[in-house]
Specification:
The chain starts with a helix and ends with a strand. The protein has two domains: about 130 residues, no CATH class; about 120 residues, Immunoglobulin-like, CATH 2.60.40. By secondary structure, it is α+β, with helices and mostly antiparallel strands. A hairpin with a 2-residue loop joins strand 9 and strand 10. This is Chromosome partitioning protein ParA. It comes from Dokdonia donghaensis DSW-1.
């Protein structure tokens, strides 16, 4: 009798273990399928970003070829987009990286529209329409998110708010200037007559950005690769920025024009091409170049 009870107990335990194994197997399969779906969705989103960037490169190629342009801001913008494509191809898609790349695509689209309009004023109305279409497309892409689960949607929304509240800088222009005794500044490209280098740009309106004291970093690099002005460094999350001067201002969510002057440390500024960059912490917002002869 005892043997019979013992046998029944073993059978019950074996049955329980079998049920547990089936449940554990089903749970493992479910987790595997969820991970597979998430990776598939991220890959699709990555391909959408790459397609947008490649389309922009094609448009730059057409404009540059039609107008026979060399060594212009259009060429520099196209090269930066190609560099971004290479960077995306070299990395695995993640929620954070896709949010960053989407914001970069949106910024590059606006830069493209501005450069195209500057290159050909007759396209002004068409460029405005393209900007509206691009803006609508961007909003739809953000709302769609990078995943199907609720957690992915919430994280994408948080990234959107953070990126959307960041400052921008456009219409960056730099030149040499002669300073009169009255304080008046006159543009000049003669390296022996220039007293200072002047960089001006616009911080556009952004209602999502928080009002308050802000700082942007301006770097001016001479033809020999030296950073002029303060020539100091500051690090942000592993990114080191070397700056010539700091633009300090109070931002009130309205467009703001800013100019900075860089003095010379030698008798004359050297001849050649100068490069100017504007950074918000570790992020490059704008760049341009000019020459002194």
């Amino acid at each position: 009798m005892d043997n019979e009870k013992s046998g029944n107990g073993i059978k019950i335990i074996a049955g329980i273990l079998a049920v547990l194994l089936v449940v554990a197997g089903a749970f493992a399969v479910k987790l595997y399928n969820q991970e597979k779906d998430t990776k598939s969705q991220l890959t699709k989103e990555k391909n959408v970003v790459l397609a947008d960037l490649k389309e922009m490169v094609s448009k730059y190629d057409v404009v540059i070829e039609e107008n026979n342009l060399k060594d212009t801001e259009l060429n520099d913008a196209r090269d930066r987009i190609q560099g971004l494509i290479a960077d995306i191809n070299a990395k695995d898609a993640t929620i954070a990286s896709l949010g960053k790349y989407r914001a970069e695509v949106f910024k590059l689209r606006n830069e493209r529209d501005f450069l195209f309009a500057q290159n050909d004023s007759l396209r002004g109305s068409n460029q405005m329409l393209a900007m509206r279409i691009d803006s609508t497309t961007y909003e739809l892409e953000v709302q769609r998110g990078v995943g199907d689960s609720l957690s992915l949607e919430n994280q994408a929304l948080a990234e959107r708010v953070t990126l959307g509240s960041a400052l921008a800088a456009n219409k960056l222009r730099a030149t040499g200037v002669i300073e009169r005794s009255s304080g008046k500044l006159i543009e000049n490209s003669n390296n022996r007559r220039v007293d200072k280098l002047r960089a001006c740009y616009t911080v556009p309106q952004n209602r999502l950005a928080e009002a308050g004291d802000r700082m942007l970093y301006v770097q001016v690099v001479d033809p020999e690769g030296n950073t002029l002005g303060d020539n100091k460094q500051v690090a942000f999350d592993g990114t080191v920025v070397t700056y010539s001067t700091i633009s300090k201002f109070y931002y009130e969510n309205t467009a703001l024009d800013i100019c900075e002057n860089i003095g010379k440390t030698t008798k004359f500024f050297p001849e050649g091409t100068y490069k100017v960059f504007v950074y918000d912490k570790g992020s490059l917002l704008a760049q341009t170049s000019f020459s002194l002869k």
